[in-house]
Specification:
Elements lengths: L1 E5 L6 H14 L8 E5 L13 E2 L18 H5 L5 E4 L2 H5 L5 H13 L3 E6 L3 H4 L3 H10 L11 E5 L13 H14 L4 E4 L7 H5 L6 E4 L6 H9 L1
Parallel strand pairs: 1-2, 1-8, 2-3, 4-5, 5-6, 6-7, 7-8
Helix pairs in contact: 1-9, 6-7
The structure holds 1,3-dihydroxyacetonephosphate.
């Protein structure tokens, strides 16, 4: 299983350090086959040693240059960061990232050999139209994406389940993952209101290879509890 924590715009440099120390201590009891990835805010990047991978929530598709407010691979390389999240719905919706820009980022980070955690997810009005509409929508989010890339991990995060406390149902997750796996044979994570109360149920669904957790992973102990089971 892959357990990924997306801090979004939470935690500081100091609290991330304390978090990762607490997490590392707890991970001593972790199953050797399980993988842990943590995506802190960019201000908290540092050299951390531990049984987890530090990833970037975002970066611009360039090494460096005149891109005010952005960071590129030069800044990630300083901390040995080689994993990146691309296509998160918050960036697509709030920051206006188009499919073509997302695809440009994907191509750049692929070219540079990064592990890419690529996010897809449908809005509520699409979910209400049924499974077929959901699948058409999700597959359109792979436009311009090389789904055969060997360092690709996909995360299915229905937008209506993110931060709402209401995760997708077991049936919705199972059907969607099964449908996606017909086209994309890559590790597939589920994200959207994953928490200690539902993680066992979610990780035991066939076709779920891991979870991408926001709010419930902001506390190191909580995240560790979910990893250790
Ligand atoms: P929540 O776990 O807070 O619903 O967030 C999910 C998410 O968007 C992770 O990327």
């Amino acid at each position: 299983m892959i357990y990924a924590a997306n801090f979004k715009m939470n935690h500081t440099r100091a609290s991330t350090k304390a978090y990762l120390e607490a997490l590392q201590e707890a991970l001593a009891g972790k199953n050797a086959d399980d993988r842990v990835i943590v995506f802190p805010p960019a201000t908290a990047y540092d050299h951390y040693e531990g049984d987890f991978t530090l990833g970037a929530q975002n970066a611009y598709p360039a090494k460096e240059g005149a891109y005010t407010g952005e960071i590129g691979t030069a800044q990630l390389e300083e901390f040995g960061i080689r994993t990146i999240l691309i296509g998160h719905s918050e960036r697509r919706q709030l920051l206006g990232e188009s499919q073509s820009f997302v695809a440009e980022k994907f191509a750049y980070f692929k070219e540079n050999g990064f592990e890419i955690l690529y996010c897809i997810g449908e809005p509520l009005h699409i979910r209400q139209q049924g499974d077929e509409a959901v699948m058409t929508y999700l597959l359109s989010q792979f436009e311009g994406i090389d789904t055969s890339y060997e360092k690709l991990i996909v995360a299915y995060e229905p937008i209506w389940a993110i931060g709402t406390g209401r995760s997708a149902t077991v049936e919705e997750i199972a059907t969607t993952h099964e449908g996606l796996k017909k086209t994309i044979q890559k590790p597939l994570l589920y994200g959207g209101s994953v928490k200690p109360e539902n993680i066992k149920e979610i990780t035991s669904i066939r076709g779920v290879d891991g979870v991408l957790i926001g709010s419930a992973a902001l506390d190191a102990k909580n995240f560790a509890t979910m990893i250790l089971g």
